[in-house]
Amino acid sequence: MILSRFIAAAGGTEAPVIFVPTAGEKQNYGATDPGADFLRRAGCRSLEILHTRDRREADTEAFASRVRRARAVFFGGGRQWRLVDSYLGTRTGREFEAVLRRGGVIAGTSAGATIQGSYLVRGAREGNTIMMAPGYERGFGYLRHTAIDQHLLRRNRQNDLVAVIERHPELLGIGIDENTAIVVHGDGFEVIGSSKVAIYDRHYKPAAPGEARYYFLTAGERFDLARRRRVVARHS
Questions:
Q1: Among 35, 40, 118, 139, which is most exposed with the fewest C-beta within 10 angstroms?
Q2: Which domain holds residue 97?
Q3: Are residues 23 and 94 in the same domain?
Q4: Shared domain check, 157 and 120
């Protein structure tokens, strides 16, 4: 369901899609790298793999121009700092943003989800258990004023964003479990998938001392990013 929504938002199976595997460990990724097979199996017929470890290359017109015809970009998993080192502040990074401005879609899994927030968590080179790492605290910022975490319940991470929001109360924390996604449109998002999304907000007050300082949304629920509140469905 998640990938079908991604493909539909891109414009269908023939829409040009860029897959960015740079968060992964390998030095090189070929045009037919099996890491993108999940997109091929989902129906993407016009798929290009874009990768570099050299931010100077990412800042060239020749490299960045490869993104211009794309209707969608999908960032693969791995380590967030690799995406920062290669693309943040480069021409290619700006071309990724331009995909959204022309009505396209950007998605990602694991590190590829976290990088889309404005504040980058788990960005440390030393390891992914460090939530706030000087020098690696800036994400790509497609979702402004947010910090995005992933593998939430599967890896028992549900309390990790609490300290981030305490340090940076202006942020909205969004924790996404596996096989789950948020679909963002304008100032709101919808939860899809089989598990949960956690919301961390300085204004949220637990009902009793000691209770969780976050709350969950499940599939079908919507959230208003501008007002920072759950959208309550109206019944006729």
A1: 40
A2: 1-135
A3: yes
A4: no
- Averaged over 154-179, what is the pLDDT? 98
The Cα–Cα gap between 2 and 180 comes to 8
Last residue of a domain, one of 106, 135, 164: 135
pLDDT (0 to 100) of residue 234: 66
Are residues 116 and 171 located together in one domain of the fold? Answer: no
Give tens-digit pLDDT for 127-140.
Answer: 999 999 999 999 99
